[in-house]
Request: fold
Amino acid sequence: MAGTQTIGIVGGGQLARMLTLAAAPLGFRVIVLDPKPGSPAAQVGAAEITADLYDAAALRRLAERADYLTIEIEHLNAQALAAIAALGKPVNPAPQTIELIQDKLRQKEFLARNTIAIAPFADVKDLAGAKKAWQHFGRKMFLKTRHGAYDGRGNMLIQSEQDIQQAFDRFAGQALYAEQFVPFKKELAVMVARNISGEVRVYPIVETIHKRNICVEVRAPAEITAAERKRAEKLAFEAAGHLPGAGVFGIEMFLTNGGKVLINEIAPRVHNSGHYTTEACHTSQFEQHIRAITGLPLGDTSLVVPAAVMVNILGERDAPTEIAGLDDALALPQVSVHLYGKSPTKIDRKMGHITATGATVAQAKRRATSARRKISI
Amino acid sequence: MAGTQTIGIVGGGQLARMLTLAAAPLGFRVIVLDPKPGSPAAQVGAAEITADLYDAAALRRLAERADYLTIEIEHLNAQALAAIAALGKPVNPAPQTIELIQDKLRQKEFLARNTIAIAPFADVKDLAGAKKAWQHFGRKMFLKTRHGAYDGRGNMLIQSEQDIQQAFDRFAGQALYAEQFVPFKKELAVMVARNISGEVRVYPIVETIHKRNICVEVRAPAEITAAERKRAEKLAFEAAGHLPGAGVFGIEMFLTNGGKVLINEIAPRVHNSGHYTTEACHTSQFEQHIRAITGLPLGDTSLVVPAAVMVNILGERDAPTEIAGLDDALALPQVSVHLYGKSPTKIDRKMGHITATGATVAQAKRRATSARRKISI
Reply:
């Protein structure tokens, strides 16, 4: 490596911010493409191009100024990234992986085709099709939008014919698919890293807690049996193995009441369920992603603490950002706070997160949730 | 805390860079004052004022743009900082502490007056005085410059009359003092943090290894007896207690052949001997300093790993910076690399550091030194 290399990131939000913070010690500069100036990543030293993530010309400008290209969000112009990759610029994850992930129905079909265990699903073209699927799935299913959904937007639990109509009203004009409701005892997640040489490292299996379809809490390690853990690791490893390109992948899973593990969704990037790694693992998911996409060897993914719990700091109001109680939160032992520099605050907007470590998951959880309660934002 | 507060740092080098990286997650912006634009801190998002550190008007401009003022180097205009503090701006460490530390002879006198154990020392006004001191100290002593010395500059071991003449030639025009050579079995160091409320936390005692008077290696924890550790902790705690102002203090000590502990020097700031805390402790010295000077509670200073060894990456040539071998270094387990973004490389310039963790100090040391050998800079 001669002198300083630059990593271009599509998106400048909190994931890009934490990638930028992790890139600096390894000697990389960062430039982000984001629709708004003064993004969370730009605040920590990333250069920025202000443009829409679907703007092909802006993506080319980003590529011209970067030695490596990556993403922090999958809702972007994947065709433009494919064209950039075709000219020889290293783009990771691979544009075809991003394109696949963008369409949740295609993602499910792809996983099914590769015999990766997932919940039963069906394409839904119209109201009649939705009703048929609902009957087929035992009158309990999800209707989900195929494109652009994240943080709870684009999911509806369907338990009646009226729910179907409501979903069609809410998601009017959007392509949908149906997924059987599978009763689960836990939601699990795992970060899997693969670098350019094909080296793979798997992080600990964690448990995720969702409210209003938003991830609110992550418990590491997941309190599951050794057999369940092995099954989850094997499945995640296999699923990631089918997706071309380097980088860190966030893999969400269901642990069914019967003890089976199913893949729910895959994010081809650093992920909220991996934030705990900054305090709890030898190598954070952010440093790992930087290593993975720049041709460096991967770091140790094991825990340095017995347990860690991450809770998101979701916005509590719609207002200019004012935070109170940081002092009370930080008075608690082994509590780390990460603020993202976003303004304004919006209800349920991800404004930051807290990670607490501890001797047990229960202790870490008490610390994290107490700390969260001290903060007002 | 309403909205975003700003921390002003005098100096924009690697310590300011790592403070800036630690300030971001807590929601603080940073602005640095540095003689050169594009400083290591500015590269990671700090705003910057380009001016000499003795420029009183520039220090006032820094203070106007900051809610809290701190330093990363003690060679600056302490009188100007005192005037700023007198107007009510929080300046930490206290300007009188900085002023005291700037003059190593005054520092020694201050410690002696407060009955803190140190090596015997003497003021040296001229060649005759130096010769007298040398006789008095058993014909083995150091001659040191009182002001502006760091990283090996300003120290000479005196074992003959010729050495005295050489020192007077080398340090011509500079105020000097003499210090008895005390045979020691180890050099120790410890970071002590005190916040604005007076809360104090002590980090583990570490062993430091110097070459050419530059710190090259830090071993955590120091391999000393429990009694020696207690003595060192107590001494460091007492010494820091005499210095007004909040912040992190780096305290260097000698463990004599007789098992006594003496204070060598105190730095009123984050310190090279505390870099290991980023990987090895719950709270890094950088986050701790940010907490300490902004009125936040202090974090847990205990180790999260059994052992860690830090080695500095010192420049190997005088040339534009080119680094090679980062990939081979990072292939080693539990190795973290921190580059400072400096160019050009100069011989013995601090270009970065490596921290390796491990089950034992010996294992961490093998990893850190192997990693260092892989890197060329």
Summary: The longest strand of chain B covers residues 184-194.
